[in-house]
Design brief:
Helices cover 0% and strands 65% of the residues. By secondary structure, the chain is mostly beta strands. It is elongated and about 65 Å long.
Length: 187
């Protein structure tokens, strides 16, 4: 669901249910199917602030909640339970768009900060001998560079391409790089 307000401000709400159809096959065990459901809800707001003829900024704020059911499976060293997990992340982003308002193709950059409020992940051996925990990074910082083209008519297509990087700020061991692309269609 999206709500758009005059002045280019918007509010988006998304809810998803995802069925994780997993298949795990060890050489010494039969295939296992520890399927689980995940649920995601997101609320995002943002807008567009013109900063002159050829530049605008687009601030965004988002909250994302996620829950995944627990899974139990057999491993070479014993049965384990991957505990259910829930998490909450907050994201602040600022996009800078370069180009005149009448331009249809323009470059952009993004700066993003993410705060992870999630709890630890747990894996427990069912015989009680071991419990492994992993803690999420508390803060991530990243950015992106890209190019976008808006559809020129209702029958037209637009596109975007973006290269991005995110780094965990706790110990700098967590990082991700991505290259994305997509199409836009106006109706």
């Amino acid at each position: 669901m999206s709500i758009h307000e005059r002045g280019n401000w918007y509010l988006d709400a998304v809810a998803q249910a995802i069925y994780n159809d997993l298949a795990i096959d060890y050489l010494t065990e039969d295939e296992q199917k520890p399927d689980a459901w995940s649920y995601v809800a997101s609320l995002e707001t943002g807008g567009c602030i013109p900063m002159g003829t050829g530049f605008r900024i687009e601030p965004q704020a988002q909250l994302v909640y996620q829950y995944t059911e627990d899974m139990t499976l057999s491993t070479l060293v014993g049965d384990v339970s991957i505990e259910d997990h829930q998490g909450l992340q907050g994201r602040l982003s600022l996009t800078g768009v370069i180009g005149a308002p009448e331009a249809t193709t323009y470059p952009f950059f993004e700066v993003t900060a993410i705060k992870d409020f999630s709890e630890d992940n747990s894996v427990k051996y069912l015989d009680g001998s071991v419990e492994l925990k992993t803690s999420p990074e508390d803060w991530y910082l990243g950015g992106a560079l890209g190019l976008t083209r808006t559809p020129q008519t209702d029958a037209g297509f637009g596109y975007y391409v973006k290269a991005a990087a995110m780094y965990g700020m706790d110990d700098l061991d967590s990082y991700s790089y991505s290259i994305m692309g997509g199409l836009r269609k106006s109706f």
